[in-house]
Design goal:
single chain; alpha/beta; five-stranded parallel sheet; two-stranded antiparallel sheet; 11 strands; 16% strand
Length: 313
Amino acid sequence: MRSALAQVRTEVAKAVVGQDAAVTGLVIALLCRGHVLLEGVPGVAKTLLTRTLGASLDLEMKRVQFTPDLMPGDVTGSLVYDARTAEFSFREGPVFTNLMLADEINRTPPKTQASLLEAMEERQVSVDGEPRPLPTPFMVIATQNPVEYEGTYPLPEAQLDRFLLKLLLPLPERTDEIEVLNRHAHAFDPRDLAGAGVARVAGAADLDAARADVAQVEVGPQVLAYIVDICRATRTSPSLSLGVSPRGATALLATSRAWAWMSGRRYVTPDDVKALAHPTLRHRVQLRAEAELEGITAESVLDGILGSVPVPR
């Protein structure tokens, strides 16, 4: 199971260059039944990354472009009147899939953003009072642009906290960008993943078995206390107006477990916690206004906390 999921990274690399960390984060989120917020400027292959991940795992993927006029029913589905039978029938929305790419989620109003909350937390949507279960596995991969905020609706803290990980997709290194151009110069078509050689290497059954295996990874009491101490330190940081909630602590536990399993170990170490602290916690903290004016970032605050909290031996 571990080798099959490790092969996913190889398959994605056939279409996407230089985003190995993001691929690993997406696999960890699938193992933890979590959701991911991708942040990067346009053109760094966020959509291609999601499509290739779905192809390598044989999972259905749907993409929704979030716009200011998008309504909740456009995402969850709605009741449609059938004149032939004189009855209402439910028409599923794009949320009924395995991987849902919510593109530019911060461009849609809060009412539509909130339509995803039940789906993300309960794995179901309720229409006309009737809950309708979503497929398994199910993951929301939402994207947002870090440099263009005009006309956007920032995600509220309650919804940010529902995302297991926030992954940053940087611009590629020079060598990686040359490789991107080289592939396009040799007839690479991002719409033809099969032509690029991307193949199915695992499936939903493999994910279920891997999740059960991850649940058996041991976490010692000292490591549990270390996770709690890191999260509690964010609540007392003078640079932060909002620290990590207990939900964030359980998220860090889950991602650390998955990382330990992917590394071939049956137990979690403090290094596993440190490795996943930034992507798991960076979107769960909120800077004070004066700290932002001083140029302090969430990343630097987390670095300071990881450097000050005693590491168990």
